[in-house]
Records
---
Amino acid sequence: MIKTKEQIEGIRQAGRINTKVLDYVETHICAGMSTEEIDQMVAKKTKELGGICAPLNYEGFPKSVCTSINDAVCHGIPNPYTILKNGDIINVDCTTIYHGYYADASRTFMIGQVDPIAKRLVEVSKECLDLAVKELKPFSRLRDIGYVIEQHAKKNGFSVVHEIGGHGVGIEFHEDPFIYHYGKKNTGMVLFPGMVFTIEPMINEGSREVYLDASNNWTIYTDDGGRSSQFEYTIAILEDGISILAH
């Protein structure tokens, strides 16, 4: 789980590409676009920048990016028939491989005019992530991350998905440790310099309960049909603080 300075620099380079791809999506995503078009956009831009889309064919995943709309919590599969509409929220989750190193990040975009609850849900999901990052420092405890996230979500009337969490990343797509987005303060493993992982809280409008779509065995949905929002960073713990490698 402990990366060398050279490995962290390699992950940072992958993260720069990943961030540029998400920036590109942010400037182009709009109502009327299909999720297949988003997939093509991500694939083309990643290739132009010298990267490889990690999701493509990962454990059978058929596309280059995950696109999760409204009540889809994560792992939405792009297709030509799902068209973005005014008022939708969509999470676009990109992972880039560059020279063998992986970086992973996602953003939730608001399409056109969204209702006040959706807007607040997206804002709070970003706030949850940023508050957790502020708590990070060398030799802090892993479950402090989840404690901060869950407290902020609950304070705003939302819930946190428990079944899916962040993960170590860099040499492989998914590594240890598992990053909980809920938990008790001052518990969990100690975070040592050299650790690189994602924080990616999934914040639900209603219940935290979710289910797996049996038709594709990938997409996770909210049990009650409420909307879900997520932001994700790849973060390195350093000797003197932390560094966001992809956002």
Note: The helical segments are 5-28, 35-48, 116-135, 143-155.
---
Amino acid sequence: MLVTLVRTVIIFFTLIVVMRLMGKRQIGEMQPFEFIVTLIIADLACIPMADVSIPLIYGLVAILGLFILHQTLSILEQTGNFFKFVISGKPSIVINKNGVDLKQLKKNNLNVSDLMDSMRSLGYFSLDDVDYAIFESNGKLSTLEKTDKESENNSFPVLIIVDKKPVNDNLNKISVKKDELLNFLKKQKTRLDKVEVLTVDGNGRAYIKEKNKKYSVVSFPLKEGITW
């Protein structure tokens, strides 16, 4: 038992030194390779602590080896954009002046719901609250607020159409039938197979983004008594 305790103390202080040398970034600010290195180091630390049959030096060498790998990749990142993009990727502009960019979202294995979740965490509830939204290479969302943004959002926008497909659960939630949705699109001089994103809030304010067109904000005819 005493041997296990001593091994644990040695590895613990080794990890403190290594993590301090790696920098002070929080988990949410780590680049992908930094997060992977951190996970592997944590796993490697557990093995020699739990299994006294494994020489302690094996665990220490593996941890220090990963630290050297981390430092090497960090230096390569600083030599130029090529290595930075290869190792950590590059930011993706998922909302621009024209609206939501589904192509960029798909490149990052994201959907409009993921984008709206991230925006809500920053205090933005409508897709047109910002002029630009950028998913950084570490997965963090950065936004540039729209200068003429509405002062308050007192209703929660729900997704009605995503990538030319209706979201049936949300249609049921706002008591809108598919033919009523199609009639609304017809009045807007568009069709279901052209609409990439459509959201509607409890005030009937609709955000509609057609493929290869700038988004627009129009009024959606909600039935009386429908609120959320």
Note: Helices lie at 2-22, 32-50, 56-77, 81-88, 102-107, 112-121, 168-173, 178-187.
---
Amino acid sequence: MENESKRLYPLRFLDESEDRQWGKETWHVADTGARDSMTSEGWLGGSTLTDLMETYLERVVGDDVFESYGLQFPLMVKTLDVKGSLPLKVNVSDQVAFDRYDSLGKTALWYVQEAGSDALLYLGFSKDMDGGGLYSRCQDGSLEEVLNAVHPHPGDVFLIRPGMVYSAGHGLRIVEIGESSELALNIYNWGKDLPEGESLLLEEAMDLIDYGRSDSCPLESVGDIVSIPEFKVTGLPLKAPLHIFSDQPGSFAIYFCAKGEAMVRVPSESDPSKRDDYKLLQGRTILVPSEVDDFYLYPLAEGTVLLEAMMERTEVPDDYTGEKESESAQVYDGGEDEPDPHEMTWRG
């Protein structure tokens, strides 16, 4: 790859979509092996995430992230346009993924971008269950009777943790931000056969499922912060220019435009007194590398909302046990004790 000494810039990628039995799945930023997002423009145009990581290393993701993940880009952003019903799935934890599959596990955040009046999510069980009861209900078709049904609204946010069974019904557009992994096991498909190449893995997943009663409800609203050990997502209602500056080369930032239209403005490398602008349309994503540590976000339409995804701290799995030393996941409530990896300053 040429121009290795040049400064990196905000990167837009070519979306990759695939029709599914239940609708359409679109990958915006992904490095999962099977998916490797490609940059769409600039002197890095045509480079994949793998190319970028192999060439620019910590300049893309930051010192802290690179120390923990190496050449693996750690986050993924995709959208789900749900016209039918997703198979009921369960995500695999990092520890189990490391032990069984030599892979990252999958914790994901779902942001509901669109929801019909009768849209439905299934998140966990409505009562305590066990493996035998789950297996029997999958066989006789009565599983829906014991699933926790949630009626989502646009702007709702849900955290899909490993062990929770989950699905989404028709009339939903969901933005998924999560670990760079597709390790979600199908356990039930509503009495229908899965497409060729997909399998039901109920028996394989039996010891991974959380059988306790769930009362999942929207986790947060846009404007609050969801902060867990795996990643951090912030909703940004962009009503005025926002200056973002960091003197900590620990992480990168991904922005998904959930509503409206925005622009990322950075100082020009050739002339610092000038600015280079990168437009961000609704439904699109831009990656701001760690090396770009001083930039502005500008709203270009009324009601613009961005989702910012980044990583605050990471832990390296122990070579022997595969376990991580980390605090339990939490949702930041806006208190003063939470460290901010960068400074945000609104401009009127």
Note: The two ends are 41 Å apart (CA to CA).
---
Amino acid sequence: MRKKFKVSYELVMVLILVAMCLLFGVLTDGLFLKPKTMIGCTSDVAYLGVQAMSMTLIILTAGIDLSVSYQMVCSAMVCATVYNMSGSALVAIIACIASGFVFGAMNGIIAAKTPINPWLITMSTMYIFQAISWFFGSSYAFSAGNPIVDVLNMKIGGVVPTQLIVLLVVYAVFWVLEKKTTFGRYTHAIGHNENAVNFSGINANRMKFWIYTLGGLTSAIAALMYMGRSWQVNQETGFNMNIEVIALVVLGGTSTAGGVGGVTGSLIACLIIGVLKKGLALMGLPGTVYNFIVGLVLIGSLIFFAYLQKRKKMVSRKMAIENMDEQKVA
């Protein structure tokens, strides 16, 4: 008996990605299909993709982190301040990563120790991190010759951006973490039933602490990537960036109800958004069109997952009723 071919969500996403590339290729008279353009479009979203890796784990636990954008801004400002004071790129990078750990741990401690909804926790810390960024009170700009800019703005072989390499390395780490470790399996399990995880002897709160802390670490990495891409950072940098990161994860197939999804879908979604950004830019359309489309994608994905969740409950209820009827007949 032949096995029925199952179409995965990731495969559908890849087909959408290919279709978008072909569409923009036609609309830009083949300009978009040039290898340098297609590979280069990842530089515009790689830092978002890195943040989406940890956000995927957070949402898998039925949580959320609205503060990632301003965690990134604060880490970038710490990096810039330390570099200006010490003149050492290595010390600045260490300070940046350390600050990301601290910022992520703040969310993690509150999420692990209190019953407060993650939306409220991270919305509150978002305003705290935004205020911290204003305390720095300056805009930091870099020029060629700065090691951070030179390395993270470099193209290997003149074609492949360093930003893409960093994104793929971070993805590989999170893929192993999600798919090949007990940490990843219990992350999914927390989203399905946190009480069951606790009853199995695993401390779900401790896991949530580390998951939110990973969010801070990836925000720090994204801060370094952003400075390499844009050469500057200021208090307005993080505006709406958290929505873009969440949109990537939801578009990638991770349900906000928790337990369903994975980092592979988030990576493909990142590439789709990168193609969308570059394609619209080549067509000369303003950023408001991009924001409008991202908003539509986000609300459409949420409606889709709400429908799937409702259908899943209906199927479970139907199966339960059928089992009860069978038991009565027996």
Note: The longest helix spans residues 287-329.
